[in-house]
Write a structure and sequence with these properties.
305 residues, alpha+beta, Phosphoenolpyruvate Carboxykinase, domain 3
Amino acid sequence: MSFGEAFLNSPDLFPARQTGETWGDERVVICFAGNDYICCGLSATQAAAVRERFAELCVPSPGERRPAVEIRIFRAADEDFIEDERVWEFDFDLDYAPEAVSFAGFRFMGRLDWAPRLQAALWSSEDGRLVSHAIFENVLRVVVAYHLLEQGGVLLHSAALGDEGGAHVFFGPSGAGKSTISRLGFETGRAVLSDDMNALRPMADGVVVEKLPFAGDFGHTIKSAGVQFLVRDLYLLEKGSVPAVRSLRPAQAVAALLGCAPFVNRNPYRFDELVQKLQELNAQLPVRVLTFAPDTCPWDLLRGF
């Protein structure tokens, strides 16, 4: 099945540029991981839902020195989208071009363009369900992944747990144990930034991890938008009966990280750039494998590293 056929009645009419009729004149600025995401063209209903969903991350206006991406919201017609027996569908298609990424999902379309600057557009026939049914958040996740890449960082499927010594970042595919290790860490008093996705960004004094509004199963235990930790190390999670830690060679480490860098790792036009950023990340931070059982606490094991 080709791009958009599962969701769009006429995939060949997918928008070739970011134009259309906006839902309204409302604007909301969401700030996290050192960046502003400026959402324009919202209806009053949509704006209220965005503010409720992202709460403390919403700011009155963009910061003068913070990088910003604009996300414009356009109205689409009901007949643009396939109506069938599905109640709702949260998966979506991605399609790649040298200067753009297109996405199509249940009752929405979107595109991310790089020229003349990074900018996103979202077309939907949904007003009241734009936020509650994850349409807006799905688009935002894609935008965040590419915006971080532009800044030399990476969006990583991971759990980030911090304490006074910095943060351990645990990554791995679904079912690897990210939510479990987040629960274990929270029970010992560690701060859980997220057990789903985290932003890793290079800074002058090292690599930092900062809270994102994508919590996963465990949920948020930190409410402040500005909390960040210096990353101590990265661990690929592996379930097993005997707790252990082992090192990974650079090529193995980059391959493991690559599998957990969503939205970008399947883009042939950004693949080499992503690999380079992961190699640079691995040069700054050790990447190890942590084998642990769900009923054991791994912190004593990690203390020696």
